[in-house]
């Protein structure tokens, strides 16, 4: 005869066993539910790459290294066979004051610039740039920040707003031997290899670029996702800058345009062609600020200039004598591939573009008039280059004034701040 007490004991153990089984089952199941972040980068036909997630429990970036090929390529067919559905934003952000970054640079044998190691920490321009996007461009679908496995000290992962994601350089670079790098241009030369999750149409920002007023998607792409190119009224004429280079009075920006024009000459124009056909003789100067990109055109550009871009990618530090300007070169490809290029109304191409000027304001923060000019400009985008010298006796006062200005126009924190 079975006693009631024995039955109760057996039921109790069965119940505890069931609870334990269900706990283990749901734990394992939830670990492998393919959320968007888990699908951030997974195995595909080209091999396994670095999987990167944002921790929802802390501000630390958790990464898992998986065996990878020496050179990883995205599935270009996927990009080329799809159309733009929405607009993303892409940043490149490097914390040059980070101790690990400085240690890595020293180990690679590159001299540290002591005058610039505090710039990014002092101004936190990325924080204000993200505030401007959250305030004036909430229609942006996703925000992607390319970094060297760094996150800002003020960053907070928001479970209710996961439109912001980080992309490791090890994911971006098609050739891992080019890492580590301390050269923003090297990173730009790999933008064609962005993960497939990034939209075909995106806006490229540096952390020193902020939106000053509300913007609409049509400020950047029309209803058919044809893009807007931002150029100034100044015409880029090669021989003029040749003379300025000889005199040593040309800055790195204009020098990069000259180098870019000559690169395109070699790629596009034969020696027998009339020199008036050379690309750098008739192009306007690109505005410094926000840039529009279509990944299909970017891939075509990267395929045609693969050797040149790989050379740039391998340069671990900035070389002002040979540096090119990636957005400027890209804009020339837009013009080359568009049906309305050079006022040609041919329908041979499905791409079209529009040029506008005055959309971006550019200023050097070391200039006393820059903040006042930024306040008065009607431009919708501000590009405020942080060229302050921490050794200058007025440095702390300048930083205080700049932060006061930023906080006056971007009062509310973004969803990704602590």
What do these coordinates show?
- With 418 residues, this protein is of the alpha/beta class.
- The protein has a single domain, classed as Spore Coat Polysaccharide Biosynthesis Protein SpsA, Chain A, CATH 3.90.550.
- It has 14 helices and 13 strands.
- The strands form four sheets. The chain has a five-stranded mixed beta sheet with strand order 5-4-3-6-10. Strands 7-13-12 form a three-stranded mixed beta sheet. A three-stranded mixed beta sheet has the order 9-8-11, covered by helices on one side.
- The termini are far apart.
- 34% of the residues are buried.
- The model is unreliable at 25-70 (pLDDT under 50).
Summarize the entry for a quick read.
The chain is α/β, with parallel strands linked by helices and about 425 residues long.
In terms of topology, how is this protein built?
Layout lengths: L3 H28 L19 E4 L6 E4 L11 H5 L6 E6 L6 H9 L11 H5 L1 H12 L6 E5 L16 E5 H4 L11 H5 L12 E6 L2 E3 L15 E10 L1 H10 L4 H17 L14 E4 L4 E4 H10 L1 H8 L12 H12 L15 E4 L3 E5 L5 H7 L4 E5 L9 H15 L9
Parallel strand pairs: 3-4, 3-6, 4-5, 8-11, 12-13
Antiparallel strand pairs: 1-2, 6-10, 7-13, 8-9
CA-to-CA gap between the ends? 66 Å
CATH class: Alpha Beta
Please tell me the total number of domains: 1
Which range best describes the helical content: under 10%, 10-25%, 25-40%, 40-55%, 55-70% or over 70%? Answer: 25-40%
What is the CATH superfamily classification? Spore Coat Polysaccharide Biosynthesis Protein SpsA, Chain A
| Helix-strand makeup class | alpha/beta
Give the H and E element order.
HEEHEHHHEEHHEEEHHEEHHHEEHEH
Mean pLDDT, to the nearest integer, reads: 80
Give the biggest sheet: 5 strands, mixed
Beta strand count: 13
Uncertain runs with pLDDT below 50, 5 residues or more? 25-70
User: Which topology does CATH recognise?
Assistant: Spore Coat Polysaccharide Biosynthesis Protein SpsA, Chain A
- Name the CATH architecture: Alpha-Beta Complex
Radius of gyration: 25 Å
Beta-strand share of residues? 15-25%
């Amino acid at each position: 005869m079975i006693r009631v007490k024995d039955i109760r004991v057996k039921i109790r153990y069965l119940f505890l066993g069931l609870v334990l089984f269900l706990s283990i089952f749901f734990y394992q199941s939830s670990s492998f539910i393919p959320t968007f972040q888990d699908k951030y980068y997974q195995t595909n036909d080209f091999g396994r790459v670095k999987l990167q997630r944002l921790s929802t429990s802390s501000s630390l970036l958790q990464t898992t290294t998986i065996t990878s090929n020496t050179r990883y390529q995205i599935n270009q067919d996927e990009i080329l066979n799809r159309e733009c559905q929405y607009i993303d934003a892409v940043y490149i952000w490097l914390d040059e004051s980070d101790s690990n970054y400085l240690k890595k640079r020293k180990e690679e044998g590159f001299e540290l610039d002591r005058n610039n190691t505090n710039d990014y920490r002092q101004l936190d321009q990325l924080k204000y740039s993200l505030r401007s996007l959250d305030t004036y461009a909430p229609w942006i679908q996703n925000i992607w920040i390319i970094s060297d496995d760094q996150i800002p000290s003020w960053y907070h992962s928001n479970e209710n707003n996961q439109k912001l994601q980080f992309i490791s350089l090890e994911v971006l670079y098609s050739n891992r031997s080019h890492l580590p790098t301390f050269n923003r241009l090297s990173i730009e030369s790999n933008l064609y290899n962005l993960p497939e999750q990034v939209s075909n149409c995106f806006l490229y920002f540096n952390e020193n670029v902020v939106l000053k007023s509300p913007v609409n998607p049509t400020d950047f792409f029309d209803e058919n996702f044809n893009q807007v190119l931002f150029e100034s009224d100044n015409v880029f004429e090669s021989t003029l800058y040749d003379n300025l280079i000889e005199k040593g009075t040309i800055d790195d920006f204009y020098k990069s345009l000259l180098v870019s024009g000559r690169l395109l000459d070699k790629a596009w124009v034969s020696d027998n062609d009339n020199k008036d056909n050379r690309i750098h003789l008739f192009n306007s100067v690109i505005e410094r600020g926000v840039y529009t990109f279509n990944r299909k055109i970017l891939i075509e550009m990267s395929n045609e200039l693969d050797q040149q871009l790989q050379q740039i990618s391998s340069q671990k530090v900035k070389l002002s004598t040979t540096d090119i300007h990636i957005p400027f070169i890209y804009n020339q490809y837009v013009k080359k591939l568009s049906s309305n290029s050079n006022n040609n109304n041919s329908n041979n191409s499905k791409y079209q573009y529009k040029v506008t000027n005055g959309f971006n304001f550019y200023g050097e923060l070391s200039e006393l008039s820059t903040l006042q000019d930024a306040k008065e400009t009607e431009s919708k985008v501000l590009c405020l280059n942080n060229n302050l010298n921490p050794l200058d006796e007025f440095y702390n006062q300048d930083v205080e004034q700049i932060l006061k200005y930023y906080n006056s126009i971007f009062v509310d924190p973004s969803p990704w701040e602590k």
